[in-house]
């Protein structure tokens, strides 16, 4: 187990072939991180850190894009909206999965992250899904509302 910024990352390994110009090439062994957060509900910072780490570890099929920032308030800058894209690299139809729409929706962002992480761990599933579609996971569409409710819930504890 690896502890980083109070997050417990459980490690396993993945071997995966990447489709490039009509042939498969072997990808070196890499680490799959499974989100295990300090609390049952992670903070926005923990979600952001996990998304960045995942995209870095799986850059051969996962990309993290910042769609923009929320408006914010006069005192602080808006929070980024992230889009985790799983793709085999060529144009296909797109499936978009959005979570964290409502401020009180604290479980959905974690569920979406666990979904794409489980797909990564189970290479048979990944090998069946990636050739068909590109998958866009937007785990948190309302980060300011999420963080507000997260802080409120943690203050009550």
From TrEMBL:
Residues 47-152 form the Peptidase M14 domain. Belongs to the peptidase M14 family. It comes from Cryptolaemus montrouzieri. This is Peptidase M14 domain-containing protein. It holds the Pfam family Peptidase_M14. It comes from the Eukaryota. The lineage of its organism: Eukaryota, Metazoa, Ecdysozoa, Arthropoda, Hexapoda.
